[in-house]
Amino acid sequence: MTDRYHDFRDLEVYVQCKQIRKNIWKMTNLFPKYETYRLTDQMIRSSRSATNCIAEGYGRYHYQENIQFCRQSRGSLFELIDHVIIACECDYIHESEQDEMIDAIKDAIKKLNGYIKYLNNQKYQ
User: Fold this and answer.
1) C-alpha closest to that of 98 among 86, 77, 84
2) Could you tell me the pTM of the whole model?
3) CATH number (domain holding residue 74)
4) Residue 94: which region, alpha, beta or left (left: phi > 0; alpha: psi -120 to 50)?
């Protein structure tokens, strides 16, 4: 943690998910307009949900609740992987973009799993 803000914004996993959210927004900006309320909306929602759940869990001040929100965040990230695959299948993005985005999402999932493990350890101390 950088301790710049002294809240969830200092978490590495939040920072990484925030970057993914920005990249998804840029990516979906190039999708056809008829996808605005379909795939585009779903991708933006799941990327936002990933950071929203981290923030909400952090604010709960109870380890088990925080862990549950982190699990929801993880679910949103896995959902986002599926959306990225769909975007590639529809030829909205190249396979190399798909692979790069999925790698970034999987890395965020690993960081999130580490944070969940940390929270689990803290609740028993």
Assistant:
1) 84
2) 0.93
3) 1.20.1440.60
4) beta
